[in-house]
Q: What sequence folds into this?
């Protein structure tokens, strides 16, 4: 589904991705781990076509994603329908005056008639338990509610691949639990998930596979999640856990001391 070969990317001379090669199959769930500034968000943006490689190639379902390819409106529309991006900061994603229009935005852009739009919006709202929020202003919702609306608006496009940038950020523990369960459900419904996070508990819950970035913006490890989480020396080396870190064995639910994020 997704194949990166030797991809590098810089923001005006400032390196953000360094020789990244990565293959993700349909239906897989992959978590991206790494300290702040290692390139996780940039990789997610690249997967969604917000930035394109300076060198190397990115292919989505066999088709190379380049500036030129994305300039073709038909291709671009199709591509953006197939891979949906939930931004780290919901405020950059939500811009409509009410929740209904927010979730309806994508389907309307895709040219569905208003009845089909309504059906999709209703089903996404109920999936996210947002039926009572239709007329609310996204701007005034809580962080957790905004995240749900952002996810609903992306799911309304029915993407095959869902990309989430630090989805747990700023959520209370109850909403965190809910979201972890929701992502597992999405996965079992056949979606491909790619999630960046610092939340090591979430990683082991939703992804069998974890990709770790280091400070050179390269991939330091691409492993089965449990093997990565067991490699304490590696986690320390990339500053994902602090020197007081230890992993309790309490039936699969590890406890982590995460370095001030
Ligand atoms: N818009 C931008 N302009 C310039 N540099 C950026 C921009 N966004 C990110 N960077 C830099 O690129 C590197 C990777 O950033 P990012 O992908 O946001 O990392 P992460 O998501 O892992 O925290 C960092 O050094 C960051 O400072
Ligand atoms: Mg980031």
A:
């Amino acid at each position: 589904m997704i194949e990166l070969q030797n991809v590098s990317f810089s923001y005006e001379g400032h390196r953000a991705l360094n020789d990244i090669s990565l293959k993700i199959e349909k239906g897989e769930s992959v978590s991206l781990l790494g300290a702040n500034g290692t390139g996780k968000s940039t990789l997610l943006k690249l997967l969604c076509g917000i930035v394109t490689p300076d060198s190397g190639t990115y292919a989505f379902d066999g088709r190379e994603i380049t500036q030129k390819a994305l300039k073709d409106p038909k291709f671009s529309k199709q591509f953006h329908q197939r891979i949906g991006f939930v931004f780290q900061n919901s405020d950059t994603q939500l811009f409509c005056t009410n929740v209904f229009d927010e979730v309806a935005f994508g389907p309307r852009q895709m040219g569905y008639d208003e009845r089909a739009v309504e059906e999709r919006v209703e089903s996404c709202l109920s999936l996210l338990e947002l039926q009572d929020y239709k007329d609310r202003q996204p701007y005034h919702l809580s962080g957790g509610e905004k995240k749900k609306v952002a996810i609903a608006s992306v799911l309304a496009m029915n993407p095959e691949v869902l990309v989430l940038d630090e989805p747990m950020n700023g959520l209370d523990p109850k909403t965190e639990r809910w979201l972890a369960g929701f992502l597992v459900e999405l996965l079992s419904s056949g979606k491909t998930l790619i999630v960046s996070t610092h939340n090591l508990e979430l990683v082991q819950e939703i992804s069998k596979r974890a990709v770790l970035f280091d400070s050179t913006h390269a991939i330091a490890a691409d492993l089965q999640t449990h093997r990565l989480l067991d490699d304490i020396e590696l986690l320390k080396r990339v500053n994902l856990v602090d020197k007081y870190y230890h992993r309790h064995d309490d039936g699969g639910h590890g406890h982590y001391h995460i370095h001030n994020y």
Observations:
- The pocket of magnesium ion (ligand 2) is lined by residues 40-41, 88, 165 (CB under 6 Å).
- The chain has ten helices and ten strands.
